Amino acid sequence: METLHINAADRAGKYLELLPQLRGLLVGESDLIANLANTAAAIHQTFGFHWVGFYLVKDSELVLGPFQGPVACTRIGFGKGVCGTAWKENQTQLVPDVDLFPGHIACSSLSRSEIVVPLRNTKAEVIAVLDVDSSLLNDFSEEDRGYLEEICALITQNL
Fold first, then answer.
1. If you placed Cys at 54, which of 65, 91, 99, 102 could pair as Cys (CB 3.0 to 4.6 Å)?
2. Can you say how many angstroms the Cα of residue 71 is from the centroid of all Cα atoms in its chain?
């Protein structure tokens, strides 16, 4: 597949059209970096969020992985910022206003809201996080949480 075909106007419809196309991209590919790269590109292309990318757990920090958007922070400590908190707590962080999140790491002053979803191995350990930033306040909902968690589970099924 070289092109995504997303025709829905609403966010839920876009996720519903994106999911089977992502499955087609990811099924049969066992390389994590390739799958993260295609997933970041697909989410960014579908929704036009400010920044979409992954940070990989390497020793005691998160290290920047494949992403779409402006340059980003390269390393994030355990428990630091929204990404480090998602890693530490092993749960999705949905932040309506990043300026109100204690210890937020501002990689871009244009980011106003953020959602970070952990990717887990078969032992339920966090191996990476999906970080999605929006230039709009309160841009993410429980609906986004559900679909993005489903996308992250899809990625780890192929490992």
1. 65
2. 15
